[in-house]
Specification:
This protein is an alpha/beta fold. The chain folds into 3 domains: 113 residues, Response regulator (Rossmann fold); 145 residues, Heat Shock Protein 90; 131 residues, Rossmann fold, CATH 3.40.50.2300. It contains 14 helices and 20 strands. The strands form 5 sheets. The chain has a 6-stranded mixed beta sheet with strand order 1-3-2-4-7-8, sandwiched between helices. Strands 10-12-13-15-14 form a 5-stranded mixed beta sheet. Strands 17-16-18-19-20 form a 5-stranded parallel beta sheet, sandwiched between helices. α1 links the parallel β2 and β3. α2 runs parallel beside α3, α5 packs antiparallel against α6 and α12 packs parallel to α13. It is elongated, with a radius of gyration of 33 Å. The N and C termini lie far apart (96 Å). The C terminus is likely disordered.
């Protein structure tokens, strides 16, 4: 098969179906005269044509109508079975008007008469431009459908998450209660098992919910939690032929960032790594804290030395050559048949939004390594870590708990009772106010922000009207921030994320009582 080599990397690939060498040269001369850079392969049989479609991957096909043992109509049919958009232009001396109309109806892009080749270059340019526009529209439609699916998933996840949290929350609280029975090792082990199962289920729910919603908020990201959530999302996506390794220097390391976006970025890189290993291999995820000097940075990077977190995704796959690496972060560039080319662009945007930068190291047959460098600011020790176990004990302070879900309410009351508080249960905001009317003001109020008939915020407003000046612990979902800006000044409000962690709740209760000076018995216990 004679072929012509391109003059530049921007040359188009032309597959020419023609049995006359002279006619082929005349057609190519028309392209040369218009200054079109191209690489051409000339074929005149079906086997060569099919092989060239697969290996040469042309940008356009120029075909004669009739060849010995082959035909342009057959060439068009074979092409359309593989690609709906690739331009196909008939260039023939025997194409009549009826045949031309029939060819266009069957999917040809255009037709040119050999005796009038002047229009060929214009037809080629227009066909390539229209094909590019159609592909872009298809990509946009795919992205729109994908976005609509994610929106539907987010709505479904949002509707289910509340009920799932309520179902799983008691496992955490019951597990904590059982673990307190240290004199019975069997109950303690059972408590740990129950709590671990509940926590795992809640982590999976939260990971899928936050990923589907794509929340964008600054927060304290704990490294161990980030990679654990990634591990949960990866389950089911890693084939048996691929081994997954997770190496974390300091799981307790916390930094300011966006958990959901970083999770999305790492998940994208991991899935790319798996696809680069069709025959199996090793996918390794590393997290390391390191000090970067000024001379480490490249000219196109913001040279700011200091402490950085390096998140690395390393695969042992086929690797990439320099031509691919040069285009890696271009929008819509992809090496996948069904890819959009937007994944790495999104990853780079996410890392840049964290003040960091990305690097990639790859070579054919050597695998690929992506390094994400996130700058670390000095972190203040978490206040909860300053409290020892002995500080969690209460002194018979009266704590009013208002939670609608009966099982969760019972376990919260049992937990606070076990730590020396006088805990009183109310299954709604109105019931809490009725209790206050009957027994007076408590030392502390714990409210569920998700109550339906009388919300946590409305209950707080009513408490203030009753003259309550103590602390309020508000149990709220982290993805549903509460609007408390219109409330009168409250002496102290503390937010505890749901699902509720028993130790964090106890720590917050102690802190709220100390802040309001009510961490001492408030008097005799009222009789219910």
């Amino acid at each position: 098969m004679p072929q012509r080599q391109p003059h530049s990397s921007s040359a188009i690939r032309v597959l020419q179906v023609e049995d006359s060498q002279l006619d082929a040269e005349l057609i190519q001369a028309a392209l040369d005269e218009d200054g079109i850079e191209y690489e051409v392969i000339l074929v005149d049989s079906e086997p060569d044509y099919v092989a060239s479609l697969s290996h040469f991957r042309p940008d356009i096909v120029l075909s004669d109508l009739s060849l010995p043992g082959f035909s342009g109509e057959r060439a068009l049919q074979l092409l359309r079975q593989q690609d709906e958009d690739l331009p196909f232009i008939f260039v023939s001396a025997t194409l009549g008007e009826e045949a031309a109309i029939e060819a266009l109806r069957k999917g040809a892009t255009d037709y040119i008469l050999k005796e009038k080749p002047a229009r060929l270059a214009t037809a080629v340019r227009r066909a390539l431009s229209e094909a590019s526009a159609r592909r872009a529209n298809r990509r946009a439609e795919v992205e729109l459908i994908r976005a609509q699916r994610f929106e539907s998933l987010a709505m479904l996840a949002g509707g289910l998450s509340h009920d799932l949290r309520n179902l799983l929350q008691p496992l955490l609280l019951a597990g904590d209660s059982l673990q307190d029975y240290q004199n019975d090792p069997r109950l303690a082990r059972l408590g740990k098992l129950v709590r671990d199962c509940g926590k795992r289920g809640l982590d999976m729910v939260q990971s899928m919910l936050s990923f589907a919603r794509g929340a964008r908020r600054a927060e304290q990201v704990r490294l161990g939690a980030l990679l654990k959530a990634l591990d949960l999302l990866m389950q089911g996506s890693v084939p048996r032929s691929v081994s997954l390794e997770l190496v974390i220097d300091d799981p307790e390391l916390s930094f300011e960032g966006n958990h959901t976006e970083l999770q999305q970025c790492l998940l994208n890189l991991c899935l790319n790594g798996i696809q680069a290993m069709p025959d199996g291999g090793c996918l390794r995820i590393e997290a390391t804290k390191l000090q970067l000097a000024e001379d480490f940075f490249r000219p196109d990077e913001d040279a700011r030395g200091g402490q950085y977190l390096r998140l690395s995704v390393i695969d042992s796959g086929m690797g990439m050559d320099q031509d691919v690496l040069a285009c890696l972060f271009e929008p819509f560039f992809t090496t996948k048949d069904a890819g959009t080319g937007l994944g790495l662009v999104s990853c780079q945007r996410i890392v840049n939004s964290h003040g960091g930068f990305m690097r990639v190291d790859s070579a054919p047959g050597k695998g690929t390594r992506f390094d994400l460098y996130i700058p670390l600011l000095d972190q203040v020790a978490d206040a909860e870590q300053l409290l020892e176990q002995d500080d969690l004990e209460g002194s018979a302070e009266k704590v009013l708990i208002a939670v609608e879900e009966a099982g969760q309410l019972s376990l919260l009351v049992d937990t606070l009772d076990a730590y020396g508080y006088q805990a009183h249960a109310s299954q709604s905001g109105t019931a809490a106010l009725q209790w206050i009317e009957a027994f007076g003001l408590p030392d502390l109020v714990v409210l569920d922000a998700d109550m339906n008939l009388f919300t946590g915020v409305r209950t707080m407003a009513a408490l203030l009207d009753y003259g309550y000046t103590g602390g309020v612990v508000l149990l709220a979902r982290p993805d549903a921030p509460q609007d408390i800006s219109e409330l009168p000044p409250v002496r102290s409000i503390y937010m505890v994320d749901k699902p509720v962690d028993s130790r964090l709740l106890l720590v917050t209760v102690r802190r709220a009582l100390k802040a309001t000076g009510t961490d001492a018995p408030a008097g005799g216990e009222p009789s219910d």
